[in-house]
Amino acid sequence: MDRQQIRSELENILTIVDDNLTKGVNITEATLIREGLGLDSLQMTELLFEIEDRLGVKIADEEALKVKTVGDLMDIIQGKKEQPSGAKGPGGEA
Q1: Where exactly are the structural domains of the chain?
Q2: Does domain 3-83 have CATH number 1.10.1200.10?
Q3: Burial class (CB within 10 angstroms; exposed 0-12, middle 13-18, buried 19+) of 41
Q4: Which of 26, 30, 73, 81 has the most CB atoms within 10 Å of its CB?
């Protein structure tokens, strides 16, 4: 999965979380998740569940706390998608 595909999927997922998040916003890798898109903590949790459900990528709480921008989130997703099957990610999850 390349970065453009990841960004497109994230935009779809953000629309699922709250249709208003993406209206009138040009989402780039530099877009701030909380300040730029206005995600609150509940929406952030829902976003992480949707990423896991739709993309098959589990993002640990420790990783989620470090996410500031859409690019940060894309980096995590891309890194996990590129790991060989059975490889352990940070926090020990496969």
Answers
A1: 3-83
A2: yes
A3: exposed
A4: 73
Hey, is 16 helix, strand or coil?
helix
The residues annotated with a catalytic role in the active site are: 40
Structural contact between residues 50 and 9, judged by C-beta atoms closer than 8 angstroms: no
pTM (two decimals)? 0.81
Question: Which of 4-33 are b and which e, b meaning 16 or more Cβ less than 10 Å from the residue's Cβ?
Answer: eebbebbeebbeebbeebbeeeebeeebeb
DSSP lists the bridge partners of residue 32 as 69
Give the three-class secondary structure for 19. Answer: helix
Rounded-to-integer distance, Cα 29 and Cα 70, Å: 5
CA angle, residues 58, 42, 74, in degrees to nearest 5: 40
